UniProtKB/TrEMBL annotation:
This is NAD-dependent epimerase/dehydratase family protein. PANTHER family: NAD(P)-BINDING DOMAIN-CONTAINING PROTEIN-RELATED, PROTEIN YEEZ. The lineage of its organism: Bacteria, Pseudomonadati, Bacteroidota, Flavobacteriia, Flavobacteriales. Residues 13-242 form the NAD-dependent epimerase/dehydratase domain.
Length: 350
């Protein structure tokens, strides 16, 4: 009888559960007493998730941890993924590949587009209650917008020579979700900007913490938007618990210059602030040298032609739409940076 009850109990599914956003979604769901099936590919990363739970709530770790069912699965493996969807109510699709390297474009498209298609198709087949897809500001239109106004959800996306492969992959991923909505899927899409928070400093946006910790001297002149991972996760859960459907939301904490962001991280780490403002000539030489040494050594580089172009652009985003639906205060950049740094010291010591 117990086995039957366990099988029939309401359970959420989280893909990308060991990533920065995915593990915070896990934490917030279990904090609400939800049972969660967590998809993962690398079991060695589960210890980081455990560390996050201990960092936020050391007294109730076991209680929350017991609500998680770990499920090893690649979202491209349809047969294995089919098993993961058994008994699932809500789906939080956080898994994605982030890369700005040309050689990884094809594999990124495969994971982000077709992996999302698999998640959408199985959600329809299993009649899930609701589906939340994590997209990106990279999939929101900028090319034809009025440069004097902030980017909003309805700005038309158009590919141009400066469009990154990552942006293409996230745009195509969203198209799979909209296709699912047309086929009857109850779904929402969130488009967070650069996400900051406790996580692995070797991955995605958090690599800047490692670079500044090592003594980064340079800063680019551009600007972008950042948001605390806790703000993204909590808004995702709020949207999923609401009647909101077939909507898309930018989630933006603060529009900020790279100089201010780098200085805030340096202060939190007790390091010297970057003082050399790079120009386009220096940046152009840098990415070419980085590409050359990457070819020689076989080691990937985070510095690419596309990433250097973005370092010089100034793009502002509006969170007005979601703020009207969910009027909740955001963490500021200092609070986000401090939280990330404190976790890194905690995790190393634990």
């Amino acid at each position: 009888m117990k086995a039957i009850k366990d099988y029939l109990r309401e359970m959420d599914l989280v893909s990308g559960s060991t990533g920065l956003l995915g593990m915070h979604v896990l934490y917030d769901l279990t904090a609400k007493g939800r049972h969660v099936r967590a998809l993962f590919r690398n079991k060695n990363k589960i210890s980081l998730v455990r560390g996050l739970f201990e960092f936020y709530d050391p007294e109730n770790v076991e209680e929350k941890w017991s609500l998680i069912e770990w499920f090893e699965c690649d979202i491209l493996d349809v047969f294995q993924l089919e098993k993961a969807f058994e008994g699932i109510s809500d789906v939080y699709h956080c898994a994605a590949t982030v890369s700005f390297r040309r050689r990884e474009f094809s594999s990124m498209i495969t994971t982000n587009r077709y992996g999302t298609a698999n998640m959408v198709n199985l959600s329809i087949d299993h009649n899930v209650r609701k589906f939340c897809h994590v997209s990106s500001t990279a999939a929101v239109g900028k090319s034809v917008r009025n440069q004097s106004k902030d980017v909003v959800e309805t700005d038309k996306w158009e590919q141009n020579p400066d469009t990154t492969g990552y942006a293409v992959s996230k745009y195509l991923s969203e198209k799979e979700v909209w296709r699912g909505i047309e086929e009857g899927l109850n779904a929402v899409i969130v488009n967070p900007c650069v996400i900051l928070g406790p996580g692995d400093w070797n991955e995605s946006s958090l690599t800047i913490f490692r670079a500044i910790h090592k003594g980064l001297r340079f800063y680019p002149p551009g600007a972008n938007a950042i948001v605390d991972v806790r703000d993204v996760s909590k808004r995702m859960l709020a949207i999923m618990d609401s009647e909101i459907s077939s909507e898309r939301f930018l989630i933006i904490g603060e529009n900020i210059t790279y100089k201010k962001l780098f200085d805030t991280i340096a202060d939190a780490l007790g390091k010297k602030k970057p003082t050399i403002r790079v120009n386009k000539l220096l940046m152009g030489i840098s990415w070419r040298l980085a590409a050359f040494f990457s070819f020689i050594t076989g080691k990937p580089t985070a510095l690419t032609k596309q990433s250097t172009k973005s370092a010089f652009s100034v793009t502002r985003y509006s969170s007005e739409k979601i703020d009207n639906w969910i009027p909740t205060k955001y963490y500021n950049v200092k609070e986000s940076v401090d939280n990330s740094v404190q976790f890194s010291f905690f995790f190393v010591k634990s």
